[in-house]
Amino acid sequence: VKFVFDTTVAAGFSILETQKEFIQRYRRRHHDSHALPMFTSSCPGWIRYAERVLGSLVTPHICTARSPQQIMGCLVKDYFSKQQKLSPEKVYHMVVAPCFDKKLEAVREEFYNSLMDTRDVDCVLTSKEIYHLMEKRKISWEDLDSVPLDQV
User: Could you tell me which residue ranges the Iron hydrogenase large subunit C-terminal domain spans (predicted)?
Assistant: First the structure.
């Protein structure tokens, strides 16, 4: 691991994109029956449930803004890789997430960037998987040094 980022900046972008979409939908509300209500979620489990179970009743109302995980993937693969003078396919972006469903989100077809020939997020490990890896290698939290996070 060469760089460690916090997704807070990506969460901010996600909120801004969500607000922008809501304003656009609000302005269309009188001539677009799918404009409102607008459902938002960064939970890929809920999104999959809505798509597969609720279907066309709900899916037109789901906000199209990317989740913080996917926005961070774009920032790392595009913006940060250029800063580091690396081609995006040379950057392996791994996310540590609290939920297994974030793995499903990362492999969605729309999150493959054909122009850069790479995924926004290459791998997702859950917090539990990190814990088990540390346990397997007999590494305790107390043995780890604290280092500042990198900035995009």
Answer: 2-151
